[in-house]
Specification:
single chain, mainly alpha, 6 helices
């Protein structure tokens, strides 16, 4: 489990850095939907790795644990750490509308993470299985 967490953390940070550079250099739009997809897409790899390295078929509770771990890492990196160090983020979270927006993003990210985790797990089984 710790290796999956580290793998997700590296994916999350690397994709954010690369996308940040592309926003600055190539002028790509920096939308919240993009941030949600960037946070969820690595779960295809995480699901693939978890299914391949498991000694038996993973149960729903184990998949939920992996999903929750990744969602927690996302929340820590994208919401909690910025709120600790950036005053405008604290202001956003103290406003009900900002808190609602943040909760909506967290919900959307969690849903998309579940989809990508499922895609990764199916990919590990191979075609037709």
């Amino acid at each position: 489990m710790p290796m999956l967490a580290l793998r997700y953390l590296v994916w999350l940070v690397a994709l954010r850095v690369v996308f940040g550079l592309l926003v600055q250099v190539a002028g790509l739009p920096n939308a919240m939907a993009t941030a949600v997809i960037l946070a969820a897409a690595p779960l295809a790899d995480i699901g693939y790795q978890a299914a391949r390295k498991a000694t038996s078929v993973l149960r729903l509770a184990e998949w939920a644990l992996i999903w929750g771990m990744c969602l927690g890492i996302f929340a820590a990196i994208q919401i909690i750490l910025p709120a600790m160090f950036v005053a405008p983020m604290r202001a956003v979270l103290s406003d009900p509308a900002g808190l609602q927006q943040t909760a909506l993003i967290l919900l959307a990210t969690g849903g998309l993470m579940a989809v990508f985790l499922w895609i990764g797990a199916r990919s590990a089984r191979g075609p037709g299985r």
